[in-house]
TrEMBL record, chains A, B, C:
It is an enzyme of class 2 (transferase). One of its GO terms (molecular function) is amino acid binding. Residues 183-307 form the Aspartate/ornithine carbamoyltransferase Asp/Orn-binding domain. It comes from Flavobacterium degerlachei. N(2)-succinyl-L-ornithine binds at residues 141, 175, 235, 275. Catalyzes the transfer of the carbamoyl group from carbamoyl phosphate to the delta-amino group of N(2)-succinyl-L-ornithine to produce N(2)-succinyl-L-citrulline. Is essential for arginine biosynthesis. The lineage of its organism: Bacteria, Pseudomonadati, Bacteroidota, Flavobacteriia, Flavobacteriales. The gene is argF'. This is N-succinylornithine carbamoyltransferase. Belongs to the aspartate/ornithine carbamoyltransferase superfamily. SOTCase family.
Length: 315, 315, 315
């Protein structure tokens, strides 16, 4: 069993229930991971993912080996049949097969380069590990998805659920740097597994990959989208059509207290790290309705559920 | 309970006694830290602090998650109300609150920048974690203090105590790079908690922060200061008045065997790393009177005492 | 007991036997390393060595503290009597003595600089730790040798041994970057402890250090060397005479399927990472005769045997 995308979740409601059970007694399965080793391979920076996934493994009694691939290891080649006379020292085939012998589970983080859309969509690094690793692989954020985040998001929404069918809004917000679409993509895919009034709002031209958004409702008027919302999930992403570019930095898209008044006293969510007063105003982030810290906390239980399922599968 | 400065020590003699007890049986409290996690966050290089604090946690049975914040995580913003459209990706508020959820204790190392005195005195990073973390915070060397070092220093002096009230000299020495005042500051504060004939010696103009030195005796004549000393603690610091500058590199301040003859067969101390034959001559560092290696060893027990106190407090 | 070179192996056949026993029950000695700490100090990148040595320590129940010395610690001075007014912050004497107090075993990786042959042959870093450390030291690849690799190689060959006295060929291959001779050296030294028809093949002028190759047979004709070989061990190294230079990049030395037909259905070995289609063709590396992945797997058991011997010695 791998955990590469939200599609790997067979029953979201069941998973969320199980994760909340883990959250209540995080050390209950401390023996499950005994003598098992999680290898965490980072091709990009990480705070929450790094520490929460590690913590999840420790809660399960696992050993953890953390490696920053970029500066601690060798540059990898991913192309089949490549004549490796350039910068790359090692082919993913050997790297993945070798690491599989030292680890029972491999977790990988490798962001989008945001230069070559096809290459990013191919998830070169993650797909390479998936192809050649002989042990389960966990996605700690790839080019196009961040399914551990989406699972944590689902857990968090369950904890704050409304009595009625909730209205959930994914709202784009401006950002000074070009960011990947990964978090937004996985959130969309996760929402498609839920019964909710789900609306995506962003400036025209900022459409996410249509193969991911599918039939999800898109509303270009942010104010209209916010109306009666129960959850506002904010996240910047760079342009997907004009790939990796920042074509809009309109500060009117920043989530403010005023905009939140349009909602049904909505909870505010964000995956973090968040640019204060650019993506969202202090007044919102510091309000009682902000659940971003609990959302980050749930990263541990999302990761722990995934690791637990893999460990149980392996027995 | 936090351990941010020497002022957090309620009874130095009691703490030193307890640390020496730990040193005798370092694994006695191996169960105390079970299922507890220490997060060690580094904003600067570290050898002794990194390994001894980790070792201390392991001796207590804790899990340890080590993170080099500078290259593994996100650039932090510390200003309240900042519009984060520049380099920083995450505000200390979120970072500290989030890490608090994965760790039972957070230890932080963040050196002085030596450019802006007010900013350094404000201990931006450490104060940020202290303000927003919801778990105890340990100072692994901040801009203005290094209290784990000072505690190890006190332990080491106790092991080598004289029968009479000791004369302890903190002596400045030259150094090719501009260094923080942190170690010297904490040593001074720690000595102010002891009954000793304590003298600080440095070139005129190299006064430490007077709010820290208070009434401590300053003697500009190094030779005179060394007379009958029982402990010579050497350390370079950059100019505090002409902030962060090197205004003196007089090699006559280097501690030599000849100078040591002025003392009462004094023990030689230094926090390490030390520049040989610049700060102190080989002949002194390699002499029987040098206790720098034991001093480094005691870093483990200083850290272990602090972690133990925090863990006991938490129960 | 240290493990610095292949010469530290008292009986290769006995060690290989013991390692294969460990491989069968890797967790059998899980209590041996309890409360013991391995410090792994890296001055260079590492994948296999990093993870396999760590895994070996975990299998023995040890704690592991990993440190990338180059960017996490202080620049070291190695010269005796140096006036340290330049770049280096700490002398190896203090560093090694201090780390010895936090760790029960110190493992060090420090590659050849390939600029100054005498300095590389002196193994400055490793020799420094060996001289000043007060606990056992393990070589995780130095300038001139990689004995953990050679031990893993011996284990792997034993697993694939022929009924007759095997013919083993160490074949140079081209490479776009100047590489150290360490792996080749240790392989040669290890082969000299075995009963085999051992042949080294490389272009004229690419002789390894004659003090290492001694009486080992050198055959400049690669095809002739390959004839009837049972094991082809391929590895690039830069010129030892014209020190650290690439004076040959003849693609005819690449190991191809055609060349392998000259052998006695030989197993193909390489320490990895390997440059595909430069050092060896895909067709060989991906063939059934390639045992490079198992060779990497055996790194764990080589390291575990060494750590186990040191731990047993220490009791």
């Amino acid at each position: 069993m791998n955990y590469i995308s939200v599609q790997n979740i067979d029953s979201l409601s069941e998973w969320v229930k199980q994760a909340l059970k883990i959250k209540k007694k995080p050390l209950k399965n401390k023996k499950l991971g005994k003598n098992k080793t999680l290898g965490m391979l980072f091709f990009n920076p990480s705070l929450r993912t790094r520490l929460s996934t590690q913590k999840a493994a420790l809660n399960l009694g696992m050993n953890v080996m953390v490696m920053n691939f970029t500066n601690e290891g060798w540059t990898l080649e991913f192309e089949d049949g490549a004549i490796m006379d350039q910068g790359a020292s090692e082919h993913i085939k050997e790297a993945a097969e070798v690491v599989s012998q030292y680890c029972d589970i491999i977790a990988v983080r490798a962001f989008a380069g945001l230069v070559d859309k096809d290459k990013d969509n191919a998830e070169t690094v993650l797909a390479g590990f998936l192809k050649f690793a002989t042990v389960p692989v966990v996605n700690m954020e790839g080019c196009t998805g961040h399914p551990l985040q989406a699972l944590a998001d689902a857990i968090t929404m369950q904890e704050h659920k409304t009595e009625h069918r909730p209205k959930v809004v994914l709202s784009w917000a401006p950002h000074p740097k070009a960011l990947p679409q990964a978090v937004a993509n996985s959130f969309v895919s996760m929402m498609q597994l839920q019964d909710a009034d789900f609306v995506i709002t962003h400036p025209e031209g900022y459409e996410l990959n249509p193969e991911i958004t599918k039939n999800s409702v898109i509303e270009y008027d942010q104010n209209k989208a916010f109306e009666n919302a129960d959850f506002i999930y904010t996240k910047n992403w760079s342009n997907y059509t004009d790939y990796g570019k920042i074509t809009n930095s309109d500060p009117n898209w920043t989530v403010t207290a005023e905009k939140m008044t349009l909602t049904n006293n909505a909870k505010f969510m964000h995956c973090l790290p968040v640019r204060r007063n650019v993506v969202v105003a202090d007044e919102v982030l510091d309000s009682e309705n902000s659940i971003v810290i609990e959302q980050a906390n749930n990263r541990t239980y999302a990761a722990q559920l995934v690791l637990q399922k893999i460990l149980e599968n392996g027995h």
